Amino acid sequence: KQEVTQIPAALSVPEGENLVLNCSFTDSAIYNLQWFRQDPGKGLTSLLLIQSSQREQTSGRLNASLDKSSGRSTLYIAASQPGDSATYLCAVRAGTYKYIFGTGTRLKVLA
Amino acid sequence: DGGITQSPKYLFRKEGQNVTLSCEQNLNHDAMYWYRQDPGQGLRLIYYSQIVNDFQKGDIAEGYSVSREKKESFPLTVTSAQKNPTAFYLCASSPDRGGTSTDTQYFGPGTRLTVL
């Protein structure tokens, strides 16, 4: 059974710091892995999608990597800003309509 | 603007009542999904639909029902059989029928349901 874990559950950093969020999964048979952002009381916004054949994806200050063999993905945020404060969730697509979500990392960037 | 809308934003239910949550998309997506989000837990799939007039149970379908009469609409009914319905409900859609690894799920803003 596929399980997705995110560590840490919460993180506070000063503005300007580079940071890494971690996501691990137990079964390497995935279609893709996606990182989402969720603001309090809101829906999810897709940040990056990495296909199973890819190693990384970049968008602006965000870089996501995927290592299927070890069951890990990282989301790197460069030069963090207070506006980056949100909960970040990763999700693996484990089947045709099967998406497994982690419980998220709640990030607070202090001004 | 293209997107997914959910209504209402907040909903209060009395014991024994059925309530219906609305989800509409104008993205012309085939697949639609309903998830439940509880504090400290990941999103859990309630139901999904690949195409009009077809839907499948997810991991926690008991106490819920759906319909898919139109491509753009996928309402969720929370019945009185759902014993612990207080949660944040999210609707999503994706553009294909699951055949590729590039498809992205798009989410609505959510409905927060509270049982009084």
Structure, described:
The complex is a heterodimer of chains A (111) and B (116). Chain A is mostly beta strands. In chain A, strands 2, 4, 5, 9, 10 and 11 form a 6-stranded mixed beta sheet that branches. A 5-stranded antiparallel beta sheet of chain A has the order 1-3-8-7-6, with no helix packed on it. Chain A is globular. Chain A has no helices and 11 strands. Chain A is 0% helix and 60% strand. Chain B is mainly beta and 116 residues long. Chain B is built from no helices and 11 strands. In chain B, strands 2, 4, 5, 6, 9, 10 and 11 form a 7-stranded mixed beta sheet that branches. In chain B, strands 1-3-8-7 form a 4-stranded antiparallel beta sheet, with no helix packed on it. Chain B starts with a strand and ends with a strand. The mean pLDDT of chain B is 91. The chains are: A mainly beta (111), B mainly beta (116). The A-B interface holds A 4, 31-32, 34, 36, 41-46, 49, 51-53, 89, 91, 93, 95-104 and B 4, 6, 31, 33, 40-43, 45, 48, 50, 56, 88, 90, 92, 97-110, 112.
Number of helices of chain B: 0
Fraction of residues in helix of chain B: under 10%
Give the overall pLDDT of chain B as a whole number. 91
- Gyration radius from CA atoms of chain B, angstroms: 14 Å
Question: What gap, in angstroms, lies between the N and C termini of chain A?
Answer: 41 Å
Query: Strand portion of chain B, in percent?
Result: over 45%
Q: Which of globular, elongated, flat, extended, rod-shaped describes the shape of chain A? A: globular
Order of helices and strands of chain B: EEEEEEEEEEE
Helix content of chain A: under 10%
Q: What oligomerization state is this entry in?
A: heterodimer
The count of β-strands of chain A is 11
State the low-pLDDT regions of chain A, or none. none
How many helices of chain A does DSSP assign? 0
Q: What's the main sheet of chain B like? A: 7 strands, mixed
Q: Radius of gyration of chain A from the CA trace?
A: 13 Å
Number of strands of chain B: 11
Please state the structural category of chain A.
mainly beta
- Contiguous uncertain segments of 5+ residues of chain B: none
- Shape descriptor of chain B reads globular
Order of helices and strands of chain A: EEEEEEEEEEE
